[in-house]
């Protein structure tokens, strides 16, 4: 191996030293930020643990001591909970008859062990209505990590790898910095130095990109921390990101980890954990159970992901797709019901760097040609799949709502079977894989692994043998099993295209310049309303899971249409003018209802001053002009005492004012976010991000008129309904 010139080595080592310094700085800043979060987290965990300990009976101390501790005398003296024993002084306990120093030490040691376990495993619940100093401090600490975005973990891992390698390579390469130093080093050290120089050269091959990644993450971490008010505002804007970090930084006990891994056999779970997951093409951080789900799909190749409704099966699928494409896959295919096709396209583009192609409707042929030529992820419907020829290059087939193909005799099932036969990796996604009979579940498994049930009979061999047989192909996590890790809030935008009647009503509203009529045009003809159809589907799913639902709209007539569309009895609607006592009676009846129930509420009424924590599904019939109006409404259900994670579904229509309004709100929120990172002015309150400009309605109407080619012959006619919204009916 020919030794490089000394000058070249010196220049190489200077560059390596700069990169090493940058990497060390990022690791240090990240460590400081994490330490601040943990420091802020400790008192909150302690507070919540104490509240839980006050509900734990003192008899639990006997379990911790292996039955050696007699707790009867403690209970008789009024020490009925673990907290009461923990807070008692040694003198108070030893005054009790039959309690000596040894018994007292055993009791309080056992109580402390329970308290420590609770503090280490509990994830704090953040209530936007209870902004105490400790929680504010936690949000301020979390802000630095949240603001750095989903690229921070990759930058941190890159920095750790740079430090690990350069800490060794730079000293080994130093003998070649000068000819005298090299001469004195001896042949063995010179040979190793030359090898080190070669390794450093390879490490610096992508130096510019690596330094940019590290520098951007470091810059984000060094931004000034916000004051408490701004931290709460940011939390309301992206609560899921905060909860995601809390879950990552909260220790998981063995039972929690087993639940997040679907209680798979230990050997299989260990194999899944070892599966790499490349995040270079992904734009979202994963929760622990979501990362495991993506790894499961990759490691097992042909599987069913059967997570409970709302646990993020789409994000897990996109994570698996992003990994494969980062590792060389060129083409992937998603098949789904037409009602969620738009969601898939938007989620792929928002959550990854992958190109998505819509193989449905007008332009299908051109989109298919572009997909085949350039690669990416094609999204088609069940009805469209049978007309699509299999493509050998497809690296993964994702089948959403896979229970649609449980009947192998249908055309769509046969099309899916044909594709499954020609693709190596297949991911079925369904929250209801076995709706009626065990055979339905068997049908899905046969698409993936035909021999799975060759030696197992679910009815004769029992559930345990059945679960063991399907473990390599089936993963399911339930809400109640992973609730300690889940964030408290998950937002899902539901995009539904106008029906013909919807589109006609919308165009008429645009033609008349009626801003409020445009907002509710999707419900103008309830019999054919696409949004109402999706709303019914969401309510039906919630009913199947026994979940309570609250439906919000700004408009009374929309709520009337929703009530009539659902058919079954509903509670409410809560509306303006309803007496406070009557409002509370409606809420109490909704809360007391056994199992599934639906409450209708005007968002400006039900979103303020009521506790709707009985609901774990929130449906927003249309986007609101003010972001805080939505967040306040959601906070009625997402609050302390909520026993289930809250799912928020916002019904939207593409190519309409819904899309335009969202873009305007997001732009304002982004501007506010950039502003808030750099200043702490007093006027930065929640209202600063509300889209409340008087010209907003006029702007949207004008732009929609231009897009639809509507000729406004009487501009004065639209001034009233645009600038001053018409009364709500």
TrEMBL record:
Query: Which residues are in coiled coils?
Result: none
PROSITE patterns of this UniProt entry? HELICASE_ATP_BIND_1 (PS51192), HELICASE_CTER (PS51194)
**Superkingdom classification of source:** Bacteria
Region span, Disordered: 703-729
Q: Which Gene3D superfamilies match?
A: 5' to 3' exonuclease, C-terminal subdomain, P-loop containing nucleotide triphosphate hydrolases, Tandem AAA-ATPase domain
* UniProt xrefs under SUPFAM superfamilies: P-loop containing nucleoside triphosphate hydrolases
Annotated Helicase ATP-binding domain ranges read 294-451
Boundaries of every Helicase C-terminal domain copy: 534-693
Basic and acidic residues: bias regions:
703-716
Task: Provide the alphabetized UniProt keywords.
Answer: ATP-binding, Helicase, Hydrolase, Nucleotide-binding
**UniProt keyword annotation of Nucleotide-binding present:** yes
GO MF terms here are: ATP binding; helicase activity; hydrolase activity
Give the matching PANTHER family. Answer: SNF2/RAD54 HELICASE FAMILY
What protein name does the entry list? Helicase conserved C-terminal domain-containing protein
């Amino acid at each position: 191996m020919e030794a490089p010139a000394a000058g070249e080595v010196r220049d190489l080592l200077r560059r390596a030293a700069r990169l090493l310094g940058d990497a060390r700085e990022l690791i240090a800043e990240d460590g400081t930020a994490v330490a601040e979060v943990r420091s802020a987290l400790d008192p909150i965990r302690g507070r919540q643990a104490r509240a839980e300990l006050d509900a734990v009976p003192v008899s639990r101390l006997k379990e911790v001591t292996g039955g050696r501790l007699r707790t009867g005398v403690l209970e008789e003296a009024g020490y009925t909970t673990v907290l009461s024993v923990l807070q008692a002084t040694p003198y108070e306990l030893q005054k009790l008859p039959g309690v000596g120093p040894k018994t007292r030490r055993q009791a309080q040691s056992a109580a402390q062990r329970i308290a420590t376990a609770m503090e280490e495993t509990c994830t704090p619940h953040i209530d936007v209505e209870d902004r105490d100093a400790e929680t504010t401090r936690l949000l301020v600490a979390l802000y630095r990590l949240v603001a750095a975005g989903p690229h921070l973990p990759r930058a941190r891992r890159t920095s750790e790898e740079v430090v690990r390698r350069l800490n060794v390579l730079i000293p080994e390469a130093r003998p070649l910095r000068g000819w005298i130093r090299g001469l004195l080093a001896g042949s063995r050290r010179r040979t190793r130095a030359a090898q080190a120089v070669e390794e450093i050269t390879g490490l610096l091959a992508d130096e510019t990109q690596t330094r940019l990644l590290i520098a951007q993450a470091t810059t984000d971490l060094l931004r000034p921390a916000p004051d408490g008010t701004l931290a709460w505002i940011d939390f309301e804007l992206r609560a899921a990101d905060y909860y995601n970090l809390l879950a990552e930084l909260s220790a998981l006990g063995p039972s929690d980890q087993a639940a997040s891994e679907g209680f798979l056999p230990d050997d299989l779970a260990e194999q899944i954990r070892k599966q790499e997951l490349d995040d270079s093409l992904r734009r979202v951080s994963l929760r622990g159970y979501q990362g495991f789900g993506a790894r499961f799909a990759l490691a097992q190749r042909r599987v069913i992901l059967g997570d409970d409704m709302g646990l993020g099966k789409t994000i897990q699928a996109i994570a698996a797709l992003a990994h494969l494409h980062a590792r060389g896959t060129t083409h992937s295919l998603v098949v789904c019901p037409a009602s969620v096709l738009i969601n898939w396209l938007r989620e792929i583009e928002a959550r990854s760097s992958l190109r998505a192609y819509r193989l449905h409707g007008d332009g299908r042929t051109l989109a298919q040609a572009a997909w085949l030529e350039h690669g990416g992820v094609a999204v088609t419907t069940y009805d469209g799949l049978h007309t699509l020829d299999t493509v050998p290059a497809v690296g993964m087939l994702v089948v959403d709502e896979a229970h649609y193909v449980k009947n192998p005799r249908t055309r769509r099932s046969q099309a899916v079977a044909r594709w499954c036969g020609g693709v190596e990796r297949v991911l079925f996604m369904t929250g209801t894989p076995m709706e009626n009979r065990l055979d339905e579940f068997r049908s899905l498994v046969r698409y993936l692994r035909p021999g799975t049930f060759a030696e197992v009979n679910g009815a004769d061999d029992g559930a345990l043998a059945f679960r063991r047989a399907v473990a390599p192909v089936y993963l399911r996590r339930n809400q109640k099993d992973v609730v300690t890790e889940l964030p408290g809030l998950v937002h899902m935008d539901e995009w539904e295209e106008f029906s013909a009647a919807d589109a006609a009503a919308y165009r008429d509203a645009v033609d008349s310049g009626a801003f409020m009529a445009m907002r509710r045009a999707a419900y103008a003809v309830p019999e054919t309303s696409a949004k109402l159809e999706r709303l019914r589907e969401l309510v039906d799913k919630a009913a199947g899971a026994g979940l309570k639902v609250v439906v919000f709209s700004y408009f009374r007539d929309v709520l009337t249409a929703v009530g009539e569309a659902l058919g079954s009895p509903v509670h409410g609607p809560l509306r303006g003018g309803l007496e406070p006592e009557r409002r509370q009676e409606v809420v109490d009846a909704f809360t007391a209802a056994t199992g599934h129930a639906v409450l209708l509420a005007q968002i400006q009424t039900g979103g303020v001053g009521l506790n709707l924590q009985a609901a774990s599904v929130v449906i927003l019939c249309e986007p609101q002009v003010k972001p805080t109006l939505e967040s306040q409404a959601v906070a009625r259900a997402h609050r302390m005492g909520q026993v289930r994670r809250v799912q928020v579904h916002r019904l939207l229509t593409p190519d309409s004012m819904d899309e335009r309004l969202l873009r305007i709100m997001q732009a304002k929120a982004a501007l506010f976010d950039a502003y808030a990172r750099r200043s702490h002015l007093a006027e930065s309150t929640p209202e600063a991000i509300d889209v409340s400009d008087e010209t907003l309605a006029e702007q949207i109407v004008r732009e929609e008129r231009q897009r639809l080619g509507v000729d406004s012959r009487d501009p004065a006619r639209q001034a009233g309904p645009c600038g001053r919204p018409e009364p709500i009916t």
